# Entry
Amino acid sequence: MKFVFAPPQSAPINGWIKRLQDSVPEVEFVAPETEDDAVREIANADAAFGTLSTKVLAAAEKLRWLQAPAAAPHAGYYYPELVDHPTQVTNFREIYNDHISSHIMAVLLSFAKHLNLYRDQQRENSWAPLSPPEHHSSFLPESTAFIVGLGGIGAETARLCAAFGMKVIATDSRRDDKPEWVDEMGGSDDLDRFLPLADYVILTIPHTPQTEGLFDRSKFQLMKKSAIFINIGRGMTTKLDDLADALDAGEIAGAGLDVYEIEPLPADHRLWNAPNTILTPHIAAHGGAHLEERRYEIIVENIRHLVNGEPLRNVVDKENWF
# Structure
């Protein structure tokens, strides 16, 4: 069996190769440096890691498995030729569950206790307890969190929200089993029904053909005027201009974003100055060297599964990109 790390390779690849050679010596590991080298090497390869150009993919006549370099690769990764190719693709989903759910809760708690507003006042040396309007404060045990997308990150976020005493409702396009800490579970068709019920709407959904631009002005207008919108999944699911319009019009009470339809967020975009927002630069998944170890563990596990003819972990529905 042969495994190719497609160029360009990221920093840990050399360390991975040495460990993989020790762990599964029956597999040949190669890391070509150029596209032409990759074309030559992948011709008889069974597996690969990374982003394959159409030129490299066309030469991959034996390829059975491709490991994507991310949990949700960049837009365009699943181009038509890759979707049509017989190879299976796996991703790195589930390695960020604890990191990203913690970030979500940090944002949610900041809104619940107005820490973002007090931080602004601190910069002005202003001691001024807020006198919030009617819908500005929230008491978590009397609040409802709506998790849109109950995968690994969404499920862990639901568990943490429930631990704070919140009612949790959720929708998911793939699962219909309800975790014990979720009060009500629905499918994608229940999105519009659930939106008016939530005090916090939390997106953890991936970017797919079905979710691109899903949250537009019409969705924000279904939410409570007191609701907070949090997007931690993928920026392309939410129309930023529509969100800015909804915030400026007071149709929702605030928004916390880590991902954006345009990245980096342009310096002149209205969201920077929109009322009651928390904006972070796509860093929710950051969290230390152990994330590389989690990536390595998925790779070595799937290599062993491929060698043994066992089902792979984290197989992607290529047509739906996730």
About this structure: The radius of gyration is 22 Å. The chain has a mean pLDDT of 95. The chain is about 30% helix and 15% strand.
